[in-house]
Amino acid sequence: MWRSIFILLLLAISIAAADARRRQINPIPFAHEPCSVLDGRPCTPSYCSPLEPGPCIPEIDYPYGQNLQLTIQSVPSEADRAKYQRPDHDLDTIGDLFAELRSCWSPPSDNMRAGMQMSVRFSFNRAGGLIGPPRLTFATSGVPAEIRTTYLNAINASLNACLPLKFTGGLAGALAGRPIAIRYVDNRGLGK
User: Fold this and answer.
1) 13: left (phi > 0), else alpha (psi -120 to 50), else beta?
2) What is the DSSP letter of 88?
3) How confident is the model at residue 110 (pLDDT cuts 50, 70, 90)?
4) Three-state SS for 150?
5) Is the pLDDT assigned to residue 62 strictly greater than 80?
6) Which residue, 42, 98, 135, 164, is most buried by CB atoms nearer than 10 A?
């Protein structure tokens, strides 16, 4: 009789241990198993209840990509004016780099078009210079070629006026060769 009680006890412990291992949360993001509202335990990485109205959509913190993207407006809003001030020291952070690039922008005075948007993509070397000319990746549709050329020339002139940028050693190593995409938005005259 003691032998059968001992076997039943071992069986119960092994089932409990197997259940605990099966329900263990995987610490690697996005590698967890799908769960159900009938599981009786919280669903990782968030918890949804069958008593809540609407669909159960988990809140997943997707990782940031490797892209460095920036939007520069010709007329910044009052809340963003501080971001357009040139740093008075060597560039040490991505925020410093973005502030420097924002402060360099001077939109064209001739052939301007309200609402014009143009995006370019380029990379810096460790010395703060450009690796090749900026590549045009987007321009507002329906804009004549002469206006696009005017804006692209203004972008190139603005970037060349700021070069070479003075990076600290850490930022130079982190940025060298990494693509940077900038969207220029000419919002002059849109508020009229």
Assistant:
1) alpha
2) S
3) confident
4) helix
5) no
6) 98
Q: Which residues of 17-36 are buried (b: 16+ CB within 10 A; e: fewer)?
A: eeeeeeeeeeeeeeeeeeee
Q: Say which residues have a Cβ less than 8 Å from residue 91's Cβ, sequence separation at least 6.
A: 97, 100, 165, 166, 167, 168, 171
**Vertex 117 angle, CA 112 and 120, to 5°:** 115
Q: Which residues are CB-contacts of 92 (< 8 A; sequence separation ≥ 6)? A: 168, 170, 171
Q: How far is CA 12 from CA 16, 19, 21, 39, 155, in A?
A: 6, 11, 14, 20, 72
Q: Is it the case that residue 146 has pLDDT exceeding 90?
A: yes
pLDDT at 17 over 50: yes
The end-to-end CA distance of the chain, in Å, is 93
Residue predicted with more confidence, 121 or 22: 121
